[in-house]
Design a protein that fits this description.
Layout lengths: L8 H8 L3 H13 L2 E3 L2 E3 L1 H7 L13 H6 L12 H15 L11 H25 L1 E5 L6 E5 L2 H7 L2 H4 L4 H7 L9 H25 L1 H13 L16 H4 L3 H24 L3 H11 L13
Helix pairs in contact: 2-5, 2-6, 5-6, 7-9, 7-13, 10-11, 10-13, 11-13
């Protein structure tokens, strides 16, 4: 008889962070779990379903069932079904993080238990996503919560002043990483078109910093169906090669272009340190102790 290797309790807890199947089932069960309060039996799901019209969800969903079944969530998933898991987390987050909106509609003692359970579920979902390398963002227009892969470069680029000056550009930098955008060529193109406007306004400046990056971006956005129609018959900008690209290949080019835009925006922002570096070089060769010119001065 082959003896199975025992997994000690600490290792079991560590590994459980990355088991999508068990986390999915745990969240699903807790969401629908019955709790008793003041002779009433309720669940988070029951209260959300009963008060669906009170939540700030956009769209034309007539009721909770219509909304829930639009996702087609399975009873169980595997540990590799990351897309389904993230969609389900987004579904739950938009209920539990908006729980406060039901305070005046639900009997107070029941609401307190409901809200406590929502906070616990929210915390566990947030912790699980963090362990998986994802974070939660908010759509500025619809105030909906969604999951994106952690990307420090994207976060930094979204906070740059000249990016913020372009309407919705900061949000779109984060939005591009949404799991739901995988395969959505049209939306990715729209987002890249927003970045094109920033690029054009800073193009000469970028050329002075990194001519290769400026040239590469200029070529891609003018050749691969981003700024111009390079694929349709009758278009004066049509490129035979581009018209024959598969959607999967074009998406990879768009993802590469997104990375290049981030690199460009970061490079442009970092140029504010150039005078400081020049000053440091001069001062480092001097024996005198003098004040260094900093970019914030």
């Amino acid at each position: 008889m082959t003896k199975s290797k025992r997994i000690h309790i600490a290792q079991n807890f560590i590994e459980s962070k990355y088991r999508l199947a068990s986390s999915y089932s745990a969240f699903k069960n807790y969401y629908s779990e019955i709790f008793f309060c003041y002779y009433s039996s309720k669940s988070i799901e029951y209260i959300c379903k009963e008060n669906f019209d009170k939540f700030p969800f956009p769209g034309n969903y007539l009721n909770y069932y219509n909304y829930y079944h639009s996702f087609s969530f399975p009873s169980f998933i595997g540990d590799k079904d990351i897309d389904i898991f993230l969609n389900f987390c987004e579904f739950l987050l938009n209920f539990v993080r908006n729980a406060r909106c039901l305070e005046k509609y639900v009997y107070s003692p029941i609401f307190q238990e409901f809200h406590t359970r929502c906070e616990l579920l929210n915390r566990k979902i947030t912790e699980t996503l963090d362990n998986l390398g994802y974070e939660i963002q908010v759509d500025p227009e619809y105030k909906l919560f969604y999951c994106v892969e952690k990307n420090s470069l994207a976060n930094n680029a979204s906070e740059i002043d000249f990016v913020k000056n372009e309407p919705s550009a900061s949000y779109k930098i984060i939005e591009y990483n949404r799991i739901n955008l995988k395969g959505d060529i049209l939306r990715k193109r729209e987002i890249l078109q927003t970045f094109c406007r920033i690029f054009e306004s800073k193009r000469s400046e970028l050329s002075n910093i990194n001519k290769t990056l400026e040239s590469n971006l200029g070529f891609i956005i003018n050749t691969f169906d981003i700024r111009h129609n390079n694929s349709d018959e009758g278009s004066k900008s049509k490129k035979e090669y581009v018209s024959k690209l598969s959607s999967a290949r074009l998406e990879k080019i768009y993802d590469m272009t997104y990375d290049l835009f981030l690199q460009a925006f970061i490079s442009l922002d970092n140029s504010k340190y150039d005078d400081c570096i020049k000053d440091l070089i001069i001062k480092s060769k001097s024996k005198e102790s003098t004040k260094i010119k900093m970019p914030v001065d």
